[in-house]
Design brief:
Strands 1-2-7-8-9-10 form a 6-stranded mixed β-sheet, with helices on both faces. The chain has a two-stranded antiparallel sheet with strand order 3-4. Strands 5-6 form a two-stranded antiparallel ribbon. It is α/β, with parallel strands linked by helices and 288 residues long. The protein is globular. The longest helix has 15 residues. The chain folds into 2 domains: 177 residues, 3-Layer(aba) Sandwich (Rossmann fold); 62 residues, no CATH class.
Amino acid sequence: IAAIDTIRDVLKVDAVHAIGYCVAGTTLAATLAVLAARGQADKVKSATFFTAQVDFTRAGELLNFVDDDQLKIIEQVSGDGYLDGRYMALTFNLLRGRDLIWNYVTNNYLMGQDYVPFDLLHWNGDTTNLPSKWHLSYLRDLYRDNLLVQPGALSIAGTPIDLRQVTTPSYIQAGREDHIAPPDSVWQLTRHFGGPMKFVLAGSGHIAGVVNPPAAGKYQYWTNPVPAGTLADFVAGAVETKGSWWPDWIEWVRAHGDAMVPAKGARVPGKGKLKSVCDAPGDYVKTR
């Protein structure tokens, strides 16, 4: 919320278009609920969720890693106050062991073949550490106990969270082959918000399904203007469009506020009244 207020102040705008990718989408949903409870929902003009979950009843295979024994192990390896990002990377790799583990054992170790350059896989392997308290709370409160969708079960700074109060227009994107945030789990978000929503099912998975610029001409996406009660109903009546879903999203965002901010002046880090801390992407993400 402080970041939203800072952007509004520095750029002299009344509201922002907010985006949350994966766990940041979960955080964005909670933030919108807090703003709604405080009567400040108008600070966000629209919200976009990339492969984000709020209801974890259908969170897929990751639920296999969330039980009391697993949580105790995570707590033990987080004794320094943070979880080493390599543990999280290993967990995600185990979900697709054939592609992300045994593929390399066979081709590179046994057959001696060179690694094939793959930009998205390089990005996927660029891990970052996680605060242990936050990580354990996320697994216990959300994955295990599913408290985020229970009105008033969680609160932020004394404000109870009730997702039903969120009326901000929302664009919800899911990846058809996503193994981290399964599409049916992402779909559940449509059952908890109280405002207008558009759901889009994109081809591919958790990364390539999101990072899919139109120029690449890859994959496809599905839309359905008719309200659907389940993901299966949505798919049954959906219209397939070849290529990236980005143009559809941009059109949707502009329909909810098309004012543009010049990419100069206060928009440039360090050029406004706030000093730039350091060059992107920052120092912490480079720490190993």
